[in-house]
Amino acid sequence: MADAxxxxxxxxxxxxxxxxxxxxxxxxxxxxxxxxxxxAISAREAEAQMRENPPDxxxxxxxxxxxxxxxxxxxxxxxxxxxxxxxxxxxGLSDREDxxxxxxxxxxxxxxxxxxxxxxxxxxxxxLKLKDYTDELDNAEAVLCTLGLSVESRDPYTEGxxxxxxxxxxxxxxxxxxxxxxxxxxxxxxxxxxxxxVAIPDEILKKGTNLTAEExxxxxxxxxxxxxxxxxxxxxxxxLPIIRHHHEHxxxxxxxxxxSGENIPLLARVLQxxxxxxxxxxxxxxxxxxxxEAAQLxxxxxxxxxxxxxxxxxxxxxxxxxxxxxx
Length: 327
Prior knowledge:
The chain contains 15 helices and five strands. The chain is an alpha/beta fold.
């Protein structure tokens, strides 16, 4: 018999079936295996449980009143907050078309009625192991984001910089109608773009200006260092171009690869615009903070000179409520 997957906490399983006898049977079987089981006998109850007490896995009956299991599964898989929760569809239907409908709805696996305990335990074990791997990736990303914040904390003048960039960048991505994955990547890029500065000595990092040629050479390595730190995580692959290229210039005078124009990845161009804006709006030992109007004028002039993507700069300042939020 397969053992329940070892976890740092008891796995929570949501059983959804309008037949209360079936939910009680599932609860009995899975509780004996060491799982926490919550149940729902209607689509409405299932939706409430998913919002209030998100499970690690869902066992979902296909045929239900109000809303079918196909509809529930599709909604959960289209919701970015729940799409990574495995869903096993339990059905008495055996037609090929019914399986295809379940696959199209996003189901991760299927069980046929009557459900045999050994098969149930094997499917649950396998999918919870996969969910653990997904959670570990999230935790690893959280550690890196925390490390990014610790880099920021080395300079008291950049307090809140990462949070602001994450917010501005994801908002600009939404304004540009980029897809959800790109918006998430921009938010992560806000926290991770300067991660490579963890390897830059304090005497260089805090100097701020008048760096020697050698100090500047060391400073310019931080995008490559940050990229190498994040590269092992496949879930961050869309973020890597942001980290590496957010210091490139439209005219090819930036670093580390002297890319120009649209050769600079779009997400890197988006982040660099909000990065420049935040730098202008923040006081440093060697400069005062600029107000919104001054920052806009400077950035438009620099875009005309070839430093930034003019279209993205214009779109940034066209974002609703930006000027009010910056006041």
